[in-house]
Amino acid sequence: xxxxxxxxxxxxxxxxxxxxxxxxxxxxxxxxxxxxxxxxxxxxxxxxxxxxxxxxxxxxxxxxxxxxxxxxxxxxxxxxxxxxxxxxxxxxxxxxxxxxxxxxxxxxxxxxxxxxxxxxxxxxxxxxxxxxxxxxxxxxxxxxxxxxxxxxxxxxxxxxxxxxxxxxxxxxxxxxxxxxxxxxxxxxxxxxxxxxxxxxxxxxxxxx
Length: 208
Description:
Layout: H1 3-8, H2 11-20, H3 23-27, H4 42-50, E1 53-59, E2 65-71, E3 78-81, E4 84-90, H5 97-104, E5 107-114, E6 119-131, H6 136-141, E7 151-165, H7 176-206
Antiparallel strand pairs: 1-2, 1-5, 3-4, 4-7, 5-6, 6-7
């Protein structure tokens, strides 16, 4: 089976699949276990670079999961190589729940979603968060693009496995940038029409 399914489809999950009648379909994807991490392919890397945010899930010492949204300009999550993601983390509400969780257990899940194109990618990895001065060379590499604000640490995710989700039930939504880009030709056309109307009104006003 794939590395992602190997990690996600635990004994309890397989039991539920049996109960719900989907084990046969899931079983068709079972192959020899994959022990090596999955390298990101070009499609996945480009998809991650194209987004302006993602969901970051970690687990604390109590066993409870915690999900945090990370946002920034397109490309603020840098794909350093097929096995490594990184970004500069800026100061937020200063609770540091994710950072604390990662120190106790570096296993994380990332969820990348593009509502406009109804596409999503789920990823397992091992995360670390270190002060910027521990790796100034990498910090400089991650400087552009990055999220605005006071940079506090470098977050690195070593990719373990990933899989594409089906597009079902993803509500199409568009960012302000996407809407502006889509409407730009309309605004340009309206501006030209207004200029033409102004000229015609001036000509009409000048007639005796």
